[in-house]
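Appendix B. Raw example, untouched.
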Amino acid sequence: MKGLLKPLAFAFVIGSAVAAQADVIFNSFGTTTEFDAGTGWTVNSTQSMGLQFSVSFGTYTLSEIDVALFSIANDGSTKVNLCANNAGSPGTVLETLNVVAAPTGTKYFLNSVLHPTLTIGNYFLTLTPGNASAGSAWCQNGDGVQGPMIFSTNGGSTWGGFTNTYGAATVQGTLVPEPATFAVLGLGVLALVRRRRTAK
């Protein structure tokens, strides 16, 4: 049994490394991480903003959402919502991350608490005001990269679409290894055990 500890420990380390692999699922900052600190899409009591993104392969657990914002009214509190897809519009809110935007454009790194699972398909990132008097602006990316954006003027009951410069955001997730990955690791452990026994 003692001879198995090293191979098993090795397999555990390798398995943990595979399980902890982080990846950028979506990036609207453009080719750089820059953003326009003075121009953004208004988020307040009369307007919410958002965009759609896709998971093209694999299964992820949400680890982080990064957004660039600046305050335009009162405390600048903003809700950053990850939403499921509901027939092409934002549906069930999977997680809400809160941020209080500063008066100057700042990139905020928001760590997930709930770590919802994201599988292949479409999702929405929406920004809504943190309270009735708060206002912020979702900074546009610094490269001028354009894509489909969405907006709501009735608190998210309905959404409209347009194409313009993206609000700067990054969605990051941790890749969940497929069962086949663990099977391969298991075979590797067995091979190591057999090799050690043969060597004796």
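End of appendix B.
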